[in-house]
Specification:
Length: 271
Amino acid sequence: MADPYEIADAAAELDELGWGTLWIPGLGGGDILGDSQRLLRATRTAKVAIGVASMWRHQAADLAAGHARLQDAHGRRHLLGLGVSDPAAARHAGQPYRPLADMGSYLDELDRAPAPVPPAERLLAALGPRMTELAGRRTAGVHPFMVTPDYSAGAREQLGDGPLIAPYQAVVLERDPDKARTAAREFLGTFLGMDHYARSLRRQGFAEEDLANGGSDRLIDSVVAWGDVQTIGARIDAHHQAGADHVCLHVVGAGPRMPRRQWRELAPLAS
């Protein structure tokens, strides 16, 4: 894990480079609100979004109170992303897994908290049509993982104008096809074995053989943007043309340290 001072320095640089939102993962639990606070302190204008916090690892009351404190202290620059995870996460929490009902109840708790989380300040890691519909009704919108521009188009058609569509987009700054796809497979392989992600990919038109052995070239090329900055920019444009409002970039395959060089190279795409 990077040194906290290095993280703060990198966040300040990203803010100066013009990155409008800094996304941080939250499914592993831990002090996710503390992570948000450190990034908000290090930046002046960039928003900080949790992408996403598992409802099974964080009590709604705690998230609501922490989110309110961050908004008051840092000019309402915090966005709370929420996910229902998978049956294993629910079992670990000692609960049955009923995704729509569970998330609906969790949103109810956020609404009833002493400092409620406004719908415009929360979004869902929705993949299926019913969770997407819930996100459109009760949150700012959706932050889907491992999706194509065609998925963004379908989400926009379903949600209509207004709700935020902010897809996650893995990127590899590598022109060599073998090296790029190898890096992508090393990152995505675990997720391809998870049932809810596999179902999402099947809905997007991928077959069983596409999901095997770390993902077919067709799947990898569809959900990972690799190549030079111009090629990656074309994928971002494709999402925007399909109806996405914001595209969250995640540099993969850059080694164990923070990919600061790649972030600098990609900075022109932030405008």
